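re: ur question from yesterday

yeah so i grabbed the chain u mentioned. its 434 aa long if i counted rite. heres the sequnce exactly as i have it in my notes:
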Amino acid sequence: LGSVVGIYEAALDTVLILRGIYPKYIASTATIRNASRQIKRLYGRENPAIFPPPGLSAEDSFFTRTVPVGEKSGRLYIGYLASAMKRRDAFAVLSAALLAAPLVQFSDNKELLDAWWTLLVYHGSLRGAGDSHNALQYFSSEYLRRNLDPSISAEKEEPEDKAKGTERRSRGNKIAQLTSVMSSEKNSQTFARLGKSCEEADCLDAVLATNMISVGLDVGRLALMIINGQPLTTAEYIQSSSRVGRSDVPGIIFTNYYRTQARSLSHYEAFRPYHESFYRFVEPTSVTPFTSQARKRALHAALVIVMRHSIGFLRTNDSANKFDPDNSMIKQAIHTLVKRCQQADCGHAGETQAHLKSLSNVWAEYIQECRHNERKLVYQQASNDRASDPLLHTHQDSIQGPWEETLHSMRNVEDTGLMRVTGLFDPPEGEHDG
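ran it thru and got these structure tokens back, copy pasting raw so excuse formatting
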């Protein structure tokens, strides 16, 4: 994410510089290492002022302050390792216990019942989220039923017990996912439902998420979380686990360690010392915005941003055919962009300059091609426009431009596709069962 952001930051900064504006950047984060290097790569600035400087007291460094539990409840981390169980069964038992706990413990206290009603489950992969969804639907329900009514036996149940079990089993059925696979509209609806209290009909029992929730999720009522497997980085672990317990309600995080994962076993063995000072273990993040892979994804978009927001006659959608690499204003804009990129990463300065020159030449050649074919060149083609050729395109567009596809989101850096799965036993077209 940071590598793609760095290219767009260079474009935006160039637009401001061409207007005589040199911005001051104020950035905030709780988990960072090698801040000076990352600031240079992202914003092209050196000698940053880190505020506040390291404090003299470990109990109060401005960023973190040690307070008594009686003053603020904070978060409780619990390590969970079911060494004799398969990964699926270990999660099913844990999730069932946590789904049943609010009903058993706080049935007569609506405030506390709502606080621990919705279970947030973090995963390091999309596959993990899918596995947890299956486990909640098909395996956790039986454990949940027994937790809510231990008198019910799996071997023999009376009719009224079955009815009671069916009623209790409704807990845990309202499950949603927050992943990149879901549409933006669906994720927005899920975010909105997270704020619903347990008394409302569309309140969620469990939400299965990936690292999409690591930033930007701030729902005060969330207090219960499972982290499936130790995340790859400490920064990710801190950011994801801090989604719960953000208000006066204490947060409880169960880290579900995998018995077959060496990283999980290592963190389980050093659970207490790791959590007592896990900010010390934050790793430096790699930010490489001007490598060939990152430039291939976003540098052409950066060029268009600079042209449209700096050159008046290139601003409108239908003015893409007015680009001329020999124009003095355009030359100056490209030179400023190159210089800004050099400030951020001198190691690839020559490659970036050559890449921008190549993009400019391809743009100019495409203008001539469109004129030869008597086609109108636009930056982005409208859905009902059949008389124009686009300079920019996405993978959904039927007509492709001269460059790589343009990203809609800086998080989605890989090609995606839609798949329709039909029934395995659907009869061939024209044939029907007798």
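noticed a couple things. The mean pLDDT is 83. also Residues 349-372 form the longest helix (24 residues).
anyway ttyl
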